[in-house]
Structures are given as C-alpha cells and as structure tokens.
Amino acid sequence: MRIVVATHNDHKVAELQRILADDLPEAALEAYEGPEAVEDGVTFAENALIKAREAFEETGIASIADDSGIAVDALEGAPGIFSARYAGTRDDRDNLELLLRNLEGVADRGAAFVCAAAYVDGERELVEMGVWRGSVLEAPAGTGGFGYDPIFQPDDAPVSAAELSAEEKDALSHRRRAFRALAAVLAAPAAP
Ligand code: ITT
C-alpha cells in the first residue's frame, strides 16, 4: 500500500517513518511535495483531515497527516492547535520561551501533547487521537526531539521528552498513540 505522508515538518517525517515502520510495515511511505494546506479548522482532528485531504487531492494516493501541539491546563488548552505559531513566528525556540513566560509563577504545570492522525483515500476518512500527559518544566532540559520537547516532562518518563532517546519517545508519544490507533483501524477487515 502506497501512503503519502502529508507534512512539511521534517521532525514529524522522521518520527512517522519510524512509527509506521513498526505499526504499518506493509506501507510504502512517500514524501508529500505539494503546497501547504490552509489549516483553518478549529480542532486538531479537523486540521489533520484538511492536510490529508489536500495531499490526497494533489496526488491521488492514500494520504496521512498529523496535526499536533501542546495543550496547557492553566492556559485553558493554549497554545493547542496554534502551537507551531504561538509566538507569531515558526521558530520552536520562540514558542517555547513564550510558553515559559506565560507560565511564570503558575503552580499548575499540567499539560498534554495531543496528536490527531488522519487518513484519506477517496473512500474513507479516518481520524484517531493520541494524548501524552505530563507537565511543563520551569526551564528547558535536553537537546533531542523538537518543538516543546525540552520543556515537557512526561508523566511516564523520568526525564524531559528532549532527554529521551528517539526510540524511548516513540514508545510513549502522543504521535505513537494516535498512529498506532490509526494503523489498527487500517489493518482491521473492512466492514461489509
Ligand atoms: P505540518 O502542518 O506540515 O505537519 P507543523 O509543524 O506546522 O507541520 P502542526 O501545525 O501540527 O505542524 O504544529 C505542530 C507543532 O506542535 C510543532 O511545530 C511543535 O511546535 C508542536 N509539537 C507537535 N508535536 C510535538 C512533539 O512531538 N514534540 C514537541 N513539540 C511538538
């Protein structure tokens, strides 16, 4: 099965290649070279579907997309779907620093990484969600991963997401949870 991976984020491409090699081993993954979709949905699920539809319409090949971000309890879920542009730039460092500033003096550090994994093939549209609970650190720790990883302390890991190896992050992440659920639906026999 050919599948186009509809993301322009190289970090996501690398994580998805590893995750899907495990969870969807029969898929031959292809990079998406088309235009960036306009993400004007109001949920992670809507935006993931918008990106997967756009890639399917451009290529005619079954397409998957990921829409993801960090949702902070004390900020009522912000930055959420706006995580990539929280500080007004696309710079991960600016976004992370703004989030730390907005949480200065805030005791409730609870947060979650959220991922919507979408699949579109012209016949079916599927979306599965993955959530990774944790808390926002007071200062960045670690150099691995991308985005908000240096300030995210997962509940189920002893160190920040940026201090985990790629394989350790893959085993726990919101992205893994969402794409594993999507792969399970794709692997299930089609309804009669
Ligand atoms: P595409 O839309 O092309 O896939 P994007 O980076 O614009 O790429 P999103 O709109 O889904 O993707 O925004 C995701 C942002 O959320 C990303 O830029 C990071 O800032 C953050 N994020 C998502 N997953 C993350 C992860 O595993 N670790 C750290 N930050 C993450």
TrEMBL record:
Keywords: Hydrolase, Magnesium, Metal-binding, Nucleotide metabolism, Nucleotide-binding
Record: residues binding substrate: T7, H8, N9, D10, H11, K12, S68, F146, G147, Y148, D149, K169, H174, R175
Superkingdom of source: Bacteria
Enzyme category, top tier: hydrolase
Cofactor binding, per record: Binds 1 Mg(2+) ion per subunit.
Catalytic activity from the UniProt record: ITP + H2O = IMP + diphosphate + H(+); XTP + H2O = XMP + diphosphate + H(+); dITP + H2O = dIMP + diphosphate + H(+)
Gene3D superfamilies: 3.90.950.10
Cofactor: Mg(2+)
UniProt keyword Magnesium present: yes
Annotated Mg(2+) binding sites: D67
Enzyme Commission number: 3.6.1.66
Active site: D67 (proton acceptor)
Record NCBIfam families: RdgB/HAM1 family non-canonical purine NTP pyrophosphatase
Entry's family note: Belongs to the HAM1 NTPase family.
Function: Pyrophosphatase that catalyzes the hydrolysis of nucleoside triphosphates to their monophosphate derivatives, with a high preference for the non-canonical purine nucleotides XTP (xanthosine triphosphate), dITP (deoxyinosine triphosphate) and ITP. Seems to function as a house-cleaning enzyme that removes non-canonical purine nucleotides from the nucleotide pool, thus preventing their incorporation into DNA/RNA and avoiding chromosomal lesions.
Quaternary assembly: Homodimer.
HAMAP family: Non_canon_purine_NTPase
Name this protein carries in UniProt: dITP/XTP pyrophosphatase
Gene it is expressed from: rdgB
